[in-house]
Amino acid sequence: MPPRPEHPDSAPVPPFPGQTPASSGAAPQASPVLDDGTYTQLREPRNDGRIALDGQWHQISPKYVVSQTVQNAIFVAVVLIAAAAVHLFAEQWWGWIAAGAIVLITAITQIVLPRQARALGYMLRDDDLVFRKGILWQRMVAVPYGRMQLVDITHGPMDRAFGIAKLKMITAAATTGVEIPGLSQAAAESLRDTLIEVAETRRTGL
What we know:
This protein is an alpha+beta fold.
């Protein structure tokens, strides 16, 4: 005897388009665009003191390093021009000393920039977003979804030229604010929409 078909009312109801699992307490689904054109391996400390979390790390775009490199080069050029102007018009040589110190600091910053960029990552968990940066001095911040008050996207002229943006999350406590630089424009917009939707859901208790 063939099995009796189930009543239509007993069949599972498919989720609505665009619905996130935040209402059930699960982590929001990450869009594939978050990993499009980003670094593929998060740089971790060499020792065994790393913090293990259950989730997937998302990284930033390598274009962030290119953008920062161009900005550093422009800054160094301006500093050298200013030092030359002081020496030429004011006949003061101390400008070269100040310019040399600034160029040295900028060069050191540029050397460690790629390592710092590969150490940047964020993770969407069940109740919060975790952001981490740094290798020697590693910082990890967890921002609860329900406490997010503002999610903002900013990008300067150089960022727009390379198609990247910075996403900023503001909470009631200023110390837990997070800025994620070097996101592609599509990734920043997708992450912003996801965080706003999940934050509204958590605040309303659904």
